[in-house]
Structure formats: structure tokens, C-alpha cells
């Protein structure tokens, strides 16, 4: 798999019924999970660019329409004037692209120059599902809850992904939710 020799990883938090979003927000607030997301998508490096993330337009807006600190964001939308509309023209930490291939090609090229091994696909539903074809690794936070009336879902994993690592079950006191971190790796094909 991979894309232009760069590892492609996805990261998401999903409920037991695979819900990832509701009303253009996360269905829960678990600060340890936000910390986990930040830690994985921000590499320990001396480079100015510490991470590269690819997301759909709604996910970008769900995070306050701001590029993530220390990382470069690629935002996918069909709207040709979106960069101008959002004041993102000329920025070097956010790029608006109009299809997944452009996002992956430009992100991989930037990763190569910045000596980063991995580019991160961070949602939402269609971006996760379209990018599966190129994905080597998936980092899922399994949140032990059923979400009713959710409107964004994580796809079923293709059968060549297997569990490579998993944390113990943890508990978030504020939300009273249990969760665990699981790494899925794609089996190598020859
Ligand atoms: N739990 C998690 O880990 C997690 C992670 C990420 C997001 N979320 C949640 O998921 C929800 C947002 O996700 P979503 O699935 O609704 O939307 P999304 O994938 O973030 O954004 C969808 C939009 O992205 C653009 N897009 C996607 N693929 C495209 C393509 N190939 N070509 C052109 N444009 C493309 C389109 O924008 P235009 O309409 O502008 O053309 C589309 O309407 C929120 O609730 C958010 O909180 C959760």
C-alpha cells in the first residue's frame, strides 16, 4: 500500500455502532483521546512541520475552521473558491484541494521534503472510506457506547487489517465512558 513511498495512516474514534460524528461534532468529549490524536499526528522532530493531516471540509469546519497547530492541513472540498472564502490563500500550513488524489500526492510530496514517514487521514466518513485503498495503518479509539442518531460513520475494515497492538480498557471520568486504543496494520502482500 502506501502512497509515493509515504505511509498512510488513519486515526478515528468510533462507537460500538461505528459512529464518528453527530451534528458536525464529535459524539463525546474524551480529553485523553484528544491528547492521543495530538500525540500521534505530531511527530517529535526538529522540523517546522511536525505532522501532515488530510480531512474533508466538514471535519475542518467541525474543528473551528482552523488549521491544526504545528501540522499542515490538507482540506478537501468541491468548492473552488473555498481557500479564498476561508482566508487560506497563501498560507503554508493549510492547503485546499479538490479530490483525494491531489491531497495524497501533495501531502506525500511535502512529507518527503519534511522527512516525515507518515501522512494522517483524519476524516470524515467518505475521506476515511475512499482513502482505505492506500492505507497501511489505522489507529482506532474504540469508545464503548452506542450513539443514536449519529450522522457520520467509520467504514468496516477490509479483512487484511489485523490488530497489531491494543491498550487496556480505560475510563474517562467526565463522560463516564470506557475506551481503548487499537492499532490495526495491513498485512503485507507479495
Ligand atoms: N470520531 C472521529 O474520529 C472523527 C474524525 C473526523 C470527523 N469526525 C466527525 O465527522 C463529522 C464530519 O465528517 P463528515 O463525514 O460529515 O464530513 P467530511 O468527510 O469531513 O467532509 C465532507 C466534505 O468533504 C468534501 N469532500 C470529501 N471527499 C471529497 C472528494 N473526494 N472530492 C471533493 N470533496 C470532497 C466535501 O466538501 P464540499 O461539500 O465542500 O464539496 C464533502 O461535503 C463531524 O461530526 C466530525 O466531528 C469524527
What is shown here, in short?
α3 (82-85) links the parallel β4 (71-76) and β5 (94-97).
Structural commentary:
It is a single chain. The chain has about 190 residues and is α/β, with parallel strands linked by helices. It has a single domain, classed as Dihydrofolate Reductase, subunit A, CATH 3.40.430. The protein is about 20% helix and about 30% strand. It has helices at about 30-40, 55-60, 80-85, 100-115, 125-130, and strands at about 5-15, 20, 50-55, 70-75, 95, 120, 135-145, 150-155, 160-165, 170, 175-185. The strands form 2 sheets. Strands 1, 3, 4, 5, 6, 7, 9, 10 and 11 form a 9-stranded mixed beta sheet that branches. It has a two-stranded antiparallel sheet with strand order 2-8. It is globular and about 45 Å long. The model has no long low-confidence stretch (mean pLDDT about 95). The site of NADP nicotinamide-adenine-dinucleotide phosphate has 28 residues, from strand 1, strand 2, strand 3, helix 2 and helix 5.
Unreliable stretches: none
Largest sheet: 9 strands, mixed
**Which term fits the overall shape?**
globular
- The count of β-strands is 11
What's the CATH C level?
Alpha Beta
- What's the CATH architecture name? 3-Layer(aba) Sandwich
Using the CA coordinates, give the radius of gyration.
Answer: 16 Å
